[in-house]
Design brief:
Keywords: Aminotransferase, Pyridoxal phosphate, Transferase. One of its GO terms (molecular function) is transaminase activity. This is Aminotransferase DegT. InterPro entries: DegT/StrS_aminotransferase, PyrdxlP-dep_Trfase, PyrdxlP-dep_Trfase_major, PyrdxlP-dep_Trfase_small. By secondary structure, the protein is α/β, with parallel strands linked by helices. The strands form three sheets. A seven-stranded mixed beta sheet has the order 1-9-8-5-4-2-3, sandwiched between helices. The chain is globular and about 70 Å long.
Length: about 375
């Protein structure tokens, strides 16, 4: 949902003469961190780069193993390879699509150094259970919160209490800056290093150099990256942040309407809130069980034929050519979800009649 306010904010940033990482980025970091209950925010160019920096922060390196869900956008696994480590795929819970303590423990080895747990499609994972288990195992826990802005776990925002979390502001997310991401941490020293890592390892930012009335001779403390967000993006993000609560409330109302309309269709199981939290319904997926009389791909084809833009469910990285060289443990739930689920349209302009039309087709195909 983008409107005139976002357009005006971007234009104001352009007119200000400061378009690179600057004061609007700093403000967006501060306000976003406060919204998700984190101590510090570090804006970056994408959630993928946020995940990469989170692993660098923890010192993950070649020879290390990092447990990840295969059931996630491929960026989750790719970030592990960026640091030369080995992704180890774990299975997920059928209801939430998320890692559990049990599925992680099943693939944990002496070489495991970290876990990347995803709040899949905005459905929060069991933050209390996974954080406690990771601490007990002595493993770093990186939270892939790409889709989770506005979701809650145990009564607090999904990012509250995370040692490090990575967020996405891609247009398919509830809050967008076009492209962009954020790393949130509670530790102040970690935030300082993350800011260096996103800006070539410089010990003073470009914005701070330009604010100084005296020449600043910066130093480059380590080999790092160019992962910065622009002030134009941050200006849009600040407007979006003001919309977030309303957008989540609207999405939850629309999801409730889907639940009402889908009730009683044999063989179709829609995503729901877990017992310990609430989802922002970034994605509204439905799982087709053997009792449903039409297979998933036929359903997608029929919906498309009738003008409905649904899409396949969440991908499984271990089934992609890029990971053909990785030997994965059996992942039956992952393969069931990626094979038998689809994502229904859910957006701020969808109408009650639209939802009735979509569900009518699903009911007919059942």
């Amino acid at each position: 949902m983008l409107g005139e306010e976002e357009a005006q904010a971007a234009a104001d940033a352009v007119r200000s003469g400061w378009v690179a990482q600057g004061p609007r980025v700093a403000q967006f970091e501060k306000e976003f961190a406060a919204t998700v209950g984190a101590g510090h925010g570090v804006a970056v160019s994408s959630c993928t780069t946020a995940l990469h920096l989170a692993l660098v922060l923890h010192g993950i390196a070649p020879g290390d193993e990092v447990i990840v869900p295969s059931l996630s956008f491929i960026a989750t696994a790719n970030a592990v390879r960026y640091v030369g480590a080995t992704p180890i795929f774990a299975d997920v819970d059928l209801a939430t699509g998320n890692l559990t303590v049990e599925t992680i423990d099943a693939v944990r080895t002496p070489r495991t150094r970290a876990i990347i747990a995803v709040h899949q499609g905005g459905v929060p994972f069991d933050t209390v259970g996974l954080r406690k288990a990771a601490e007990g195992w002595g493993l770093a826990l990186v939270e892939d919160a790409a889709c989770a802005a506005g979701s809650t776990a145990y009564g607090t925002p999904a990012g509250t209490g995370a040692a490090v979390a990575a967020w996405s502001f891609h247009p398919r997310k509830v809050l967008t800056t076009g492209e962009g991401g954020m790393v949130t941490v509670d530790d102040a020293e970690a935030a300082v290093r993350l800011r260096r890592l996103r800006e070539h390892g410089m010990n003073v930012s470009a914005a701070d150099r330009h604010k100084s009335s005296q020449p600043v001779l910066e130093a480059y403390l380590e080999t790092a990256y160019n992962y910065r967000m622009t002030d134009i993006q941050a200006a849009v993000g600040l407007v979006q942040l003001g919309r977030l609560a309303g957008l989540v409330a609207q999405r939850r109302e629309l999801a409730a309407r889907y639940h009402e309309l889908l009730d009683g269709i044999d063989g179709l199981v829609p995503v729901r809130d877990p017992a310990y939290g609430t989802t922002n319904y970034q994605s509204f997926w439905v799982l087709l069980t053997p009792d449903y009389r039409t297979d998933r791909d036929e359903v997608l084809a029929e919906l498309a034929k009738r003008g409905v833009s649904a899409r396949r469910g969440i991908m499984a990285a271990h089934l992609e050519p890029a990971y053909a060289d990785v030997t994965a443990a059996p992942l039956p739930v992952t393969e069931q979800i990626t094979r038998d689920s689809l994502i229904l349209p859910l957006h701020h302009k969808i109408t009650d009649d639209d939802q009735k039309y979509i569900v009518g087709i699903l009911r007919e195909l059942a």
